[in-house]
Design brief:
3 domains, single chain, Dihydrodipicolinate Reductase, domain 2, about 400 residues, binds NADP nicotinamide-adenine-dinucleotide phosphate, seven-stranded mixed beta sheet, alpha/beta
């Protein structure tokens, strides 16, 4: 039996005064990792509640860092095991060491705050169930949308909403690349530019192949549809095969190319997928520029709600992490009841597609499932060699 992740997140912090937190001085914080996110978290914590920071673990304690802390620890397990540490903040990333550390913290009944979407999207449901057994909590507002408070919104304010659709532009790196292509760069130039400016990793596959967006979508879908959800079953197409001709073909029709990650109700089923798609310029999904993100929730009662902002970056992500820490320190109860039941199973997202072939192009009259794009290319191949088959996003489809 699974339960959906037990979620507490940033905006709970709004109701918690600094006095409440400082009154609980026995509650120490242990920070694991002090890189892009961890160093912003450390600076903010040392500004807000220096007396609560008990340890900061890094791989290389001797590396110079812009953080006013002079006792970096090379052993993250030591920080987790410190009896003075009650809130363990995991900012290392990945599913190896970070997973072991999170498991250890949960086993010891400690509260865990993490920005690690890879871990939450693959193992979040059972980690939350484990936490429920040990009295620990698991908070991960920063794992989706950086500073955008979407996890808390879905778990709290929208906790009773009948969500029909959730998703949008969830990956800043690919948005930056597509934006640069929109401005005239080809794919390789755009990616190199993103890498130079620190918006893309030297190994960009997690972003450009759509893994990161799929992880975030799985987390959102689990919260929106209140079922345990992992990213393994989310169908995914990345942006690496796109070229300047694809961008131009959209621009000629008043569309902008975006990497969309969307899960939606379709009768009894949930359709989900990550795909490059053309979006009409006036649509909310066409709006984020650079590394921006947009998440839209469509509910039967609430209608369409759009959340937009900085989806990544040290300070933006730390804003959500620190608020989760404050909520953990205040010991507030989880907003989300544990849901028992089967994992969310999704079908491939469907959308009409633009098929470009030598001598012409056509938008299919009916939506095509994302796993049928090659078959669609074969059908239209009778008209001429097919150059591209790219979904066209329309809310009506
Ligand atoms: N970057 C973003 O904008 C962003 C946005 C949202 C979520 N996130 C998530 O936040 C997490 C952290 O990302 P990041 O960009 O901050 O990563 P990062 O810059 O690579 O930092 C990783 C940190 O982990 C430390 N570390 C690595 N191995 C360690 C070990 N064996 N023992 C102790 N510490 C170790 C590193 O230590 P050294 O400094 O000594 O190398 C470094 O401080 C990831 O889960 C990521 O997905 C990031």
């Amino acid at each position: 039996m699974h339960t959906v992740p037990k979620v507490l997140c940033s905006s709970e912090a709004a109701s918690i005064s600094t006095a409440t937190v400082t009154a609980q001085r026995v509650n120490g914080i242990g920070l694991l990792g002090c890189g892009t996110v961890g160093s912003s978290v450390a600076r903010r914590l040392l500004e807000l509640h220096p007396e609560l920071v008990r340890g900061i673990a890094v791989r290389d304690p001797h590396k110079p860092r812009a953080v006013a802390w002079d006792d970096f620890d090379g052993d993250p397990f030591e920080v987790v095991d410190d009896p003075a540490v009650r809130v363990v903040v995991e900012c290392i990333g990945g599913v190896g060491l970070a997973r072991e550390l999170v498991l250890r913290a949960i086993a010891r009944g400690k509260d865990v705050v993490t920005a690690n979407k890879d871990l939450i999207a693959t193992e979040g449901p059972w980690l939350a169930a484990f936490a429920a057994r040990t009295g620990a909590t698991l908070r991960y507002e920063a794992a989706v949308g950086g500073a955008i408070p979407i996890v808390r919104a879905l778990a709290g304010s929208l906790g009773s909403e009948d969500v029909l659709e959730i998703g949008g532009v969830l990956n800043g790196t690919t948005n930056f690349v597509l934006d640069a292509m929109d401005a005239g760069a080809d794919y390789d130039e755009a990616l190199a530019q993103a890498q130079q400016l620190g918006f893309a990793e030297s190994d960009p596959r997690a972003d450009v192949d759509g893994h990161d967006a799929a992880h975030k979508l799985a987390i959102l879908a689990g919260l929106a549809f209140r079922q345990p959800s992992t990213s393994g079953g989310v169908l995914r197409h990345g942006i690496a095969a796109l070229g300047a001709a694809d961008v131009r073909a959209g621009a000629e029709r008043g569309w902008r190319l975006k990497l969309l990650a969307i899960a939606k109700r379709s009768g009894e089923a949930i359709e989900a997928g990550v795909t490059p798609a053309y979006v009409p310029l006036a649509h909310p999904f066409a709006q984020p520029r650079g590394a921006g993100n947009v998440v839209r929730v469509v509910g039967r009662g609430c209608g369409a709600l759009t959340f937009a902002g900085a989806g990544a970056g040290g300070d933006a992500t730390a804003s959500a992490v620190v608020a989760d820490i404050v909520a953990a320190l205040a010991g507030s109860e989880p907003h989300v009841a544990a849901h028992a039941g089967a994992d969310l199973v999704t079908q491939p997202l469907r959308a009409r597609v633009l098929v470009r072939f030598d001598g012409g192009s056509v938008v299919t009259p009916e939506p095509v499932p994302l796993d049928q794009l090659e078959a669609t290319a074969r059908v239209y191949g009778v008209h001429g060699a097919v150059r591209a088959v790219i979904p066209v996003w329309s809310d009506a489809a």
